[in-house]
Prior knowledge:
Layout: E1 6-11, H1 15-26, E2 29-35, E3 51-58, E4 61-67, E5 80-85, H2 89-102, E6 104-111, E7 116-122, E8 128-134
Amino acid sequence: MKHQATPYFSFNGQAKEALAYYKDVFDGEILSVMTFGEADFPSPPEMSEHIMHAQFKKGELFFMMSDSFPGQETTAGNHISLVLELESEEEIQHYYRRLTEKGTVVMELQDTFWGAVYAKVKDPYGIHWDLNYTKK
């Protein structure tokens, strides 16, 4: 693994508002923002201005966030996941296999339009893990 797990916050359409709030509270920097409308990913038209992915940093504090699709609304307890940035395809496949032995696949292991191999798995204790390997 490249580093410690990264918190990932999910919102029901409030990600832009939350991002501005955290920027103000922590005096931090918004590193990137991509809306669903900007992404090469099929999404409902009403999602076009919602955040698909954003990154925030203040010193050692780093987290990511997005809005959820309609029908996949978040509630307290399922709106935060941990992102593992992995170093090889073998490593991501290893952790994907291990997590899915007892966990539930939320998004299958797959190649993505952002140049990574990615999967999302909910473990048997309700923790969501985002596995990401950015291809070289």
